[in-house]
Design brief:
- The chain is an alpha/beta fold.
- It has 17 helices and 31 strands.
- The chain is globular, with a radius of gyration of 23 Å.
């Protein structure tokens, strides 16, 4: 079955354990002002316009996913959204007139909520009342640009524009894909060039499955989460369209090689690529994009796929999402990129009496408006919750209390923390393991993914401090920006933020410096919402030319988001219409029907993500649990 795939075991050293870890959390690191950026350099900016009647919009979203409502599953078109909630003709005319006067080129998206703007840095700086400087990171020499002063909106824009996104290239996003550490080994499942799972019975029922931890395919996902009954009824995603928002281009031939290699029959010529704001470059994130397409399109083999890629900056990420939602062609959308939510905040005046200063949270607000539009249009949207357990800053900044090190506060990832997106968490499926010749041990039930089980194994069998895997695991916790959404207010197990959390940098010269204090007991949005297998030890095969071909031992919540995307495409075909915003629907079903043989969910009672433990109810380790897709389909069709 896998004869066409030449397997290449990937054993990453700890120095490159995290795919994409070259991003160094520049938001928190000191940088040197190098002076004015090159005035003639071209740049792209996205203006997010204030919504009209936002309260009515949020109420309508609830109605579209509430059985019995007159608006149940009556989703808006982009034009209807623009007419009811977008900017008026007069507002857009005023904004465009101002931009024209500054010599800037602009394009209004169909949703009338976003305007793409292009011009030189000199023009953009003049238009938005700030000089744009080049900065150099003091630790890795990374160059980026950002406004030297806060953006100042002129009177022509102040009443209409809420966010100017893209003037800064400081924040770059992380791919939530990681790989097995070098010291990990599976003697019983050592990977070598050979055909795997020669028959469906050995693989557990799906003929494209391998049954081999670390080399799982979408067929194994179908086995784990009861998807096969949908395939048996001819539900393959036909008629549905999957959207992928990503920050690197890829070679579509990689995805086709993956599908062909596992023996999966797919719709031909199904991939369309849209390059946003000068996207189209293949870079270190190409493997991420490849796996997003392979996983989502593999679970829904007859669905169409649109890939929106953009350069890796905060403004371009917003622009790519805005384009995908305004186009309104994709029935469901996923992304597997993110960064710590708190990197969107301004630093707190530590002598003041207030909690976190969120006056700099423009990108959070920009994404939020885009996700509101998606929800009312019936587009289901998913985001990976991160791979740094309950301590989201650790992956980018590290942790410790020595000179030059950062503390590790409890934090969550963005955009997964937005209340109008479905956050995808991670689990470890049952398997037996042995590392470095130590004894064989087993995980007997699906557990919250956290590599403290590997850390404990080494500490117990080989002595402490041989390795440091803190805090690798499924992202989860409590937002300190977004309040508890309506669908979580009656969910048992939802938590408040913890006390005494702060991001502190131990300056080698000045000593500890508090960069940000986080509010305790904040009634925040809890992340994730759902979880599926994400541990690289029980991970997946990926085909990626930039990674050398076929690689095993891949994992991270970057797999779960596109898997939910593909599942949503199946549910769309089965229901005959879009599913819409998942969260109110799945929380309602879990709250009312709980867990059990006929439930759509299985609780995750074991494991932890270094702070939040598995529970027989909602937990910030794994959300409301894993899916039984066949049962979820039955519930959704019943309502």
């Amino acid at each position: 079955m896998l004869a066409k795939l030449h397997q290449k075991a990937l054993a990453a050293s700890f120095a490159v354990l995290f795919a994409g870890a070259a991003w160094a959390g520049q938001t928190a690191r000191p940088a040197i002002d190098m002076g004015l950026a090159t005035a003639s350099q071209n740049a792209n900016v996205t203006l997010i316009l204030k919504l009209r009647n936002q309260g009515q919009l949020e109420d309508l979203i609830r109605q579209t996913v509430t059985p019995g409502s007159a608006n149940y599953h009556r989703f808006l078109t982009t034009r209807q959204f623009a007419e009811r909630f977008g900017a008026t003709d007069a507002q857009i005319a005023n904004v465009k007139a101002y931009l024209d006067k500054q010599g800037l080129r602009s394009e209004v998206l169909d949703n009338r909520m976003a305007i793409r703007v292009q011009g030189t840095l000199a023009q953009l700086g003049q238009a938005f009342g700030t000089a744009i400087h080049t900065y150099k990171s003091t630790d890795d020499g990374h160059l980026f640009r950002r406004p030297a002063q806060p953006v100042s909106l002129p009177a022509e824009l102040a009443g209409t524009v809420t966010v100017v996104s893209g003037l800064s290239t400081e924040r770059q996003y992380i791919s939530h894909r990681i790989r097995t550490p070098k010291l990990a080994s599976h003697p019983a499942t050592a990977l070598a060039p050979r055909a795997l799972a020669p028959n469906a019975k050995a693989a557990g029922g799906n003929p494209t499955a391998t049954g081999v931890p670390g080399s799982y395919t979408v067929g194994d996902v179908a086995n784990f989460y009861d998807i096969n009954p949908l395939y048996a009824k001819g539900v393959t995603g036909k008629g549905a369209t999957i959207g992928i928002v990503t920050l690197s281009n890829f070679d579509p031939a990689d995805a086709q090689a993956y599908w062909d290699g596992i023996g999966l029959v797919t719709k031909p010529h199904r991939i369309k690529q849209v390059h946003v704001n000068g996207g189209g470059a293949i870079n270190g994130g190409s493997g991420e994009t490849a796996l997003d397409v392979e996983q989502s399109g593999g679970l829904a083999p007859k669905a169409d796929i649109i890939v929106y890629d953009a350069p890796n900056t905060s403004g371009d990420f917003v622009a790519a999402f805005a384009q995908a939602v305004s186009d309104n062609c994709a029935d469901s959308i996923s992304t597997s990129w993110g960064l710590p939510e708190i990197f969107n905040f301004a630093a707190l005046n530590v002598n003041g009496a207030s909690d976190t200063d969120t006056t700099d949270a423009g990108d959070l607000r920009a994404f939020h408006q885009v996700f509101l539009e998606a929800a009312v249009q019936g587009q289901s949207v998913f985001a990976a919750s991160g791979d740094s357990g309950a301590y989201d800053t650790v992956r980018g900044l590290g942790h410790g209390d020595g000179p030059g090190q950062f503390s590790a506060p409890l934090t969550v990832d963005s955009p997964a923390s937005d209340p109008f997106i479905t956050a995808a968490g991670g689990t470890t499926t049952p398997y037996s393991y042995s590392f470095s010749g130590g004894p064989v041990e087993s995980i007997k039930r699906e557990s919250v993914w956290g590599w403290d089980y590997i850390q404990n194994y080494f500490d117990t069998n080989f002595g402490p401090s041989r390795i440091d895997l803190f805090s690798v695991g499924g992202g989860g916790g409590v937002s300190v920006y977004w309040q508890t959404p309506f669908y979580q207010q009656f969910t048992y197990g939802v938590r408040r933020s913890e006390k005494k959390q702060a991001l502190v940098f131990n300056d080698p010269k000045a000593g500890p410096t508090t960069l940000l204090k986080l509010p305790g007991h904040f009634r925040g949005r809890n992340v994730p919402d759902l979880a599926l297998n994400a541990d690289p030890e029980t991970g997946y095969l990926v085909v990626s030319t930039t990674d050398g071909g076929v690689v095993s031992g891949n994992g991270g919540t970057s797999f779960v988001a596109p898997q939910l995307n593909g599942i949503s495409a199946l549910l769309t075909q089965s229901a005959g219409h879009r599913v819409g915003f998942w969260n109110p629907q799945v929380y309602f079903l879990q709250n009312v029907f709980g867990y059990g043989k006929y439930s759509a969910f299985d609780s995750v009672r074991d494991g932890d993500n270094w702070f939040y433990y598995g529970k027989p109810h909602y937990t910030p380790g794994a959300g409301i649990g894993t899916l039984d897709v066949a049962n979820l389909d039955a519930f959704l069709r019943t309502f």
